[in-house]
Amino acid sequence: QVQLQESGPGLVKPSQTLSLTCTVSGGSITTNYYYWTWIRQPPGKGLEWIGYVPWSGSSFYSPSLKSRTSISSDTSNNQFTLQLNSVTPEDTAVYYCARASIALIVEYWGQGTQVTVSS
Q: Each residue of 18-29: b (16+ CB within 10 Å) or e?
C-alpha cells in the first residue's frame, strides 16, 4: 500500500517561497510509469492541478503556475518537493501530494496540508 505524507510550513508570508515535501512509503518514486503530483484546493473552490515529476524525465506544470513552480524528486529519500515562488494570499489552499498513473488518474493521495499566505 502506497502512502504519501506532506510536510512543510503552514504559514508563508506574501512574496516568499512556499516549500513542501512529500514523503512516499510502500513504493519507490522511480518505479516506471507513475507521476508524482501536487494538487491544491483553495477555500471554497475546486481542486487545481499544479504539476508533476515523473518516474524519469522532466517535470511538467500547469500553464497558469509554470512561471512560479518547481517540482523535483529526491530519490535517495524517496521524496518529492514543491516550490512555489512569489506567493500571494490567492495561493492559500490545502496542498495535496499524490501518485497518478500513466493515464494521469490519481490512485493515492496524501492527507493534505493547509498552507496560508498572510503577513
A: bbbbbbbeeeeb
Q: What span, in angstroms and rounded, lies between the C-alpha atoms of 77 and 117?
A: 28
- Which of 49, 43, 57, 107 is CA-nearest to residue 82? 49
Tens digit of pLDDT per residue, the chain (119 long)? 999 999 999 999 999 999 999 999 999 999 989 999 999 999 999 999 999 999 988 999 999 999 999 999 999 999 999 999 999 999 999 999 999 999 999 999 999 999 999 99
Cα-based distances in Å from 58 to 14, 47, 70, 75: 28, 23, 11, 14
